[in-house]
Amino acid sequence: MKPAREVLARLRELRAADLPTHGGRTLAYVYDSGLSGVDELAAQAHALAAAANGLDPTAFPSLRRLENDLVAATARLVGGTPSTVGAVTSGGTESCLLAVLAAREGRPDVAAPSMVLPSTAHAAFHKAAHLFRVRPVVVPVDPVTFRADPDAMAAAIDDTTVLVVASAPSYAHGVIDPVAPIAAAAAARGVRMHVDACIGGWILPYFRRLGRPVPEFGFAVEGVTSVSVDLHKYAYVPKGVSVLLHADADLRRGHFFASADWPGYTMLNSTVQSTRSGGPLAAAWAVLEHLGDDGYLELARQTLAAVTTLAEGIRSVDGLRLLAEPDSTLIALTAGDAGFDLFTVADEMRARGWYVQPQFAHESSPVNLHLTVTAANRGGEAGFLADLAASVAAARDAGPVTVDENVAAFVAALDPDTLTGEQFEGLLTAAGLGGGAGVPDRMAGINALLGTAHPALRERLLREFLGMLYRPD
């Protein structure tokens, strides 16, 4: 048996290689309130309930109480009514999965169900389509604003449609889809309407209270039948806690699961998971109780100020522009025809201690860098913008990233349906990842190479890469 101190020392050693989760320098994946004491409170609450099992709400009634409290608090923010019900899930993807599952199960008369998605809908809906065999009908968005086109969405609804989706906001560009006309079109056809507010659901209502014009996107909009809101984003609770809300209990029933036809206990699940630790529930509940309405209003004020300052600063950097005016807390910036490579800018920012997220070109959206702004970024905007300008200058000096024409031809000839292990190993070698080299510090060349692949091939390559990463040493 190893002493506890040695185990923890090894864990700290491993964590040292990770991106920082506090301080506002990782502008993707993490959400930081910047407040002291919040993590400690959450950890203590998590420990108090970690051994409790959400599999059976009658055995652990405290978890039922905590979950109902989280659902009620979320519903109040997004226009819930006394009939609004919900479930706490492990994250936004599970919330979106269950929204699709409930819609499918609610229409057993449709033999080959489909759902209508704007092309900017989160990839979680494509995962749901794959898992639950609901055909995605993808509708291009406005090529300038990147918002869903209500008329095109309405035209895509047919007799097989069981769900229509909009975002508040979309992840890639940070803009809010026109929920009201899309919901009206869905309601006119008797189809459910889900709003993916995983990012904006908790903070946009506070932005509205601060005077920012925010259109209604929740249950105050007629025709909206479900809304997803992640608490581990702008409620600043530990991962993973999300809430899926339904307008009434009948709409929720389709994602419940029960199985009694076996000799063991009767299985009853409200989510995809069966066993669920009570730790995340307790941690989330404790943070919400601690911060309260006034605390979240102040955090939203700081976040809004940071978003505004960063957006203004990005406009002043020669060669950069915003892809869209940010409706929420997400910023997408691009280089246009500035003569430098954005993937190199991302590498240069990483070298300066910042993580910004590269996004590939898609439809009218060019290669861009994504920023997830939190309250922790308030006060650090000047440092970020100075390093961004320096990174752009370094990328301009470095010149464009080019892909060897022979490598590009090799990639173009790959078939994602028949890609062999040998071909994948050859591509890794061409990209400088062969021989167990691991992931390099600079990714511009690899991202440029991936950018030459069409999405289906890129997906296959990334699956192979994931398989390479998850191999026991």
TrEMBL record:
Pfam family, one: Pyridoxal_deC
GO terms of molecular function: transaminase activity
UniProt superkingdom: Bacteria
Cited Gene3D superfamilies: Aspartate Aminotransferase, domain 1, Type I PLP-dependent aspartate aminotransferase-like (Major domain)
UniProtKB keywords: Aminotransferase, Antibiotic biosynthesis, Lyase, Pyridoxal phosphate, Transferase
Cofactor(s) for this UniProt protein: pyridoxal 5'-phosphate
UniProt record similarity statement: Belongs to the group II decarboxylase family. Sphingosine-1-phosphate lyase subfamily.
Protein name: Aminotransferase class V-fold PLP-dependent enzyme
Source organism of this protein record: Amycolatopsis thermalba
